[in-house]
Design brief:
Largest sheet: 9 strands, antiparallel
Strand order of the largest sheet: 11-12-13-14-28-24-23-18-21
Mean pLDDT: 95
Helix content: under 10%
CATH topology: Beta-galactosidase, Chain A, domain 5
Number of strands: 28
């Protein structure tokens, strides 16, 4: 197999591409380190399993936060406030009265620098980097490196988060990809999530406190996808926890088009999986499904049981790996 890399642009947005001579091609925008396409050969044509952005305007506007890199937190923070090391922080200081919410971290609009772009006989790789500094309510310094590798196993992502400051910081990783396995709708696809529990939330989509957040899947059959089954009319905006790992230590969420047998797997080393059928999206509702590997559930900054796990000491680095593997 021969792998190649290239730099190009989509309108005014710089992008990089990773490809091989089988016809697989990955395109990544430097804005937000956002995956915008993952094309694979299928039935004599190229099929894009990534429901990414079509043009520069969409890259800038990021509707649906498609393929967002979520650092230093994933999902929502309740009331845009959190407590860490005995201190209170407000991510929306001076905000007008009304609903308050902060979501998906601070790098979705960051201009990532291209730190590495290389290819050899075994893979094509791109590493993009940015830094978090001076964010209101987050007085910490985090350097972020996101590496994408295309090889025989598909596309893998390795995120490195380094505390470059002088005090400990709360920090964890999440990814917000949307996928499709046909030109149809999510209702027509089979989904399998190897979870043992649901994450129960309130009306604000914030997980309930303590053990109340965890519901055994045996008690929620309508949302149980431990065995692959048709998504059908299920409306999903749901976190899944206590994921069962395979013998290699990875957990695998699978999406399949039963008509053709074509599918894909999202793997992750640890954490939770959030599934979203996109019903609230204006133009793309149920045309794809978000399968989001996250280190911890949303609002982890405010959960006492997560305090030690999200803590990143000065000079320390956290690494998280996940990936996507198309299957014929």
């Amino acid at each position: 197999m021969r792998y190649t890399v290239e730099r190009s642009s989509l309108g005014d947005q710089p992008i990089v591409a990773l490809q091989d001579d089988s016809g697989r091609r990955v395109r990544i925008a430097c804005h937000g380190a956002t995956l915008i396409a993952f094309e694979v050969p299928r039935g004599g044509r190229s099929f894009d399993i990534a429901a990414g952005y079509r043009d520069a305007a969409e890259i800038r506007a990021r509707p649906g936060s498609r393929f967002a890199i979520m650092v230093p937190f994933a999902g929502r923070i309740a009331g845009a406030r959190y407590r860490f090391d005995g201190r209170e922080y407000d991510l929306q200081p001076g905000a007008a009265p009304g609903p308050r919410e902060s979501r998906h971290g601070f790098v979705r609009d960051a201009a990532f620098a291209l730190a590495d772009l290389t290819a050899d006989s075994g893979s094509a790789r791109a590493t993009l980097s940015t830094s978090i500094r001076g964010v209101p309510g987050y007085p910490f310094a985090i350097d972020v490196f996101v590496g994408f590798t295309l090889d025989g196993g598909g596309l893998s992502l390795e995120a490195r988060m380094r505390n470059a400051g002088e005090e400990a910081a709360p920090c964890f990783f999440g990814w917000h990809p949307y996928f499709r396995v046909s030109d149809g709708a999510a209702d027509e696809w089979m989904l399998q999530i190897p979870a043992r529990a649901l994450i129960r939330t309130g009306a604000d989509l914030i997980a309930l406190p303590g053990d109340a957040a965890h519901v055994p899947l045996n008690d929620a059959p309508a949302l149980d996808f431990r065995r692959s089954r048709l998504i059908g009319g299920s409306i999903l905006d749901q976190g899944y926890a206590d994921l069962a790992a395979d013998t290699d230590g990875r957990t695998r969420t699978r999406l399949i088009d039963p008509t053709t047998g074509f599918g894909m797997t999202v793997w992750q080393e640890r954490g939770v999986m959030h599934a979203f059928t996109g019903d609230t999206l204006q133009h793309e509702a149920r045309r794809s499904i978000a399968l989001e590997p996250m280190e911890f559930m949303a609002n982890a900054f405010n959960r006492p049981e997560c305090a030690d796990a999200v803590r990143l000491d000065p000079g320390a680095e956290r690494v998280y790996r996940c990936g996507v593997q198309p299957t014929a």
